[in-house]
Amino acid sequence: MLCHLLALSTFIVPLGSILGPLVMWLIKKDQSPYVDAQGKESLNFQISIAIYAIVASILILILIGGILLIGIGIFWLVFVIIASTKANDGIVYRYPLTIRFLK
Length: 103
Hints:
By secondary structure, this protein is mostly helical. The chain has one domain (about 1-25, about 30-90). The protein has four helices and no strands. It is elongated. One of its GO terms (molecular function) is glycosyltransferase activity.
């Protein structure tokens, strides 16, 4: 669950949404296959969201990027909360619209 919740550290630390889950995953990945899988899933989602946000930032030039950034932000927050609650219940959660960088 902490791998998913640490993504919220981006409100305090720049790039915290990627660094928080990365640190937790690197520390705990060898102790549990469940933590390994959920850590990879969280990292994949956070990296995907960062890519989507960069593209939306570029699209600000044609006036649709602002709306996309707001939508991406809401999408991100909702799914981080959903994933955290599912992980707390011991359910393997897969984020939607995620590019699988780590397998």
